[in-house]
Design goal:
The protein is of the alpha/beta class. The chain is built from four helices and seven strands. It has a five-stranded parallel beta sheet with strand order 1-4-5-6-7. The protein has a two-stranded antiparallel ribbon with strand order 2-3. It starts with a strand and ends in a 5-residue tail after the last helix.
Length: about 170
């Protein structure tokens, strides 16, 4: 799995965050998972090149973005435009961007987003029916070429048939 974490740390947001794996892993290394910081060594990973001048992330890669945080976390607002610039530059790489903060997506898309970028898959996580019914309709209203959702962590039975029937999710 190819992962890019331009920032690390998060604020617990909903019941699906109660047993967050990132907090668990940080605790093992005696770190505080609620400390949010820009990752220095790999912040610019998608545009890094090797000695021959080739991108380190090959064309066609699916790059899971912000897996140790939330892409639409308010504390990352100052860094997000730089990340959008790299995503724009690497139109040959597919970026999987997931969030629990669906209500922040529309206000934090780049100015030239239009009806979405071909190389971005916007994904919301849904841990129960309440969060599915809250987040999926929001994502359905966001212009996007690719939309998805994850039922994780599954805390209770979730029925998503009506959302799948819309044809808006991959």
């Amino acid at each position: 799995m190819n992962i890019w974490n331009p920032w690390h740390g998060c604020r617990k947001y909903s019941e699906g965050c109660e047993n967050c794996y990132m907090y668990y892993l940080d605790k093992q290394y005696e770190r505080d998972g609620s400390e949010i910081y820009k990752v220095k060594t790999n912040f610019n990973l998608p545009v890094k090149k090797d000695r021959q001048g080739n991108y380190k992330i090959p064309s066609g890669t699916l790059l899971y973005t912000c897996m140790t945080s939330d892409f639409f976390l308010e504390e990352a607002d100052n860094w997000r435009n730089e990340v959008w610039d790299m995503i724009r530059q690497r139109s040959d790489v597919n970026f999987w961007i997931q969030t629990k903060r669906a209500e922040r997506i529309a206000d934090n898309l780049p100015a030239d987003w239009g009806d979405g970028w071909e190389n971005v898959i916007l994904v919301v996580t849904t841990e129960n029916q309440k969060r599915a019914d809250e987040r999926l309709p929001i994502l359905m209203k966001i212009p996007a070429k690719h939309r998805g959702f994850m039922c994780a962590p599954i805390l209770s039975e979730i029925h998503v048939e009506q959302y799948l029937a819309s044809g808006q999710f991959e």
